[in-house]
Amino acid sequence: MASRIEHRAEFAQDVHEVYDAQSAEEVLRARLDLLGGKHAGLPEHSADEHRAAYKLVQGIGADQLPSAVRALHKGDLIVHREQVWEQSGAGYTGTAKATVDGVPGEITARTELVPNGTGATLITSGEVKVRIPLVGAKLEQVIAEQVTRLLVREAEFTAKWLADG
Fold first, then answer.
1. Residue ranges for the chain with pLDDT beneath 70
2. CB of 123 within 8 A of CB of 140?
3. Can you tell me the distance from the alpha carbon of 92 to that of 111, in angstroms, rounded to the nearest whole number?
4. Helices 15-23 and 136-164, axial angle in degrees (round to 10)
């Protein structure tokens, strides 16, 4: 069984400005510098006004992991993320996928960036699947909580980036 991820972020800026802040190489590198951990990187990136595709590497230090995770996984967690955005009507839709080194499973999500009055709303819905007998469900819950916290922090970063313009 999978654990669900649901996140919603509201921005005062329009869809195109938020899309740029979600997909521009400069912004992604700045976000990784702040939130990506010691293994952070942007190994692939391409973007224009209609489509963006990029891969991120992020690290979560072993000292920051709950004891349940440390018991199953030694060392830092290295997360590999792939994001694709495509223009869709007045907004953008996308897919996200993530894997964690040494953990049999994956995180998948659908992302939407839609107009909301004069602003924009970013919606993420997905799931975490971990294929480890007996403890997989517990690990899924922990990973889903960590991913949701990360999405909140990334949205806060984006809002600040846009406000500081």
1. 68, 70, 73
2. no
3. 8
4. 120
User: Which 3-state string (H, E, C) describes the chain?
Assistant: CCEEEEEEEEECCCHHHHHHHHHCHHHHHHHHHHHCCCCCEEEEEEECCCEEEEEEEEEECHHHCCHHHHHHCCCCEEEEEEEEEEEECCEEEEEEEEEECCCCEEEEEEEEEEEECCEEEEEEEEEEEECCCCCHHHHHHHHHHHHHHHHHHHHHHHHHHHHHC
| β pairing state of 41-47 and 3-11 | unpaired
Closest CA to 1 of 141, 143, 142, 145: 141
Q: Give the side-chain half-sphere CA count within 13 A for 30.
A: 12
In angstroms, the first-to-last Cα distance of the chain is 42
pLDDT for 13-30, tens place per residue? 999 999 999 999 999 999
Q: What is the pLDDT of residues 61-77, one digit of tens each?
A: 777 777 767 677 677 77
Residue whose C-alpha is closest to residue 5's, from 156, 85, 107: 107
Dist. CA 152–CA 143, nearest whole Å: 14
Helix axes 15-23, 25-35, angle to 10 degrees: 60
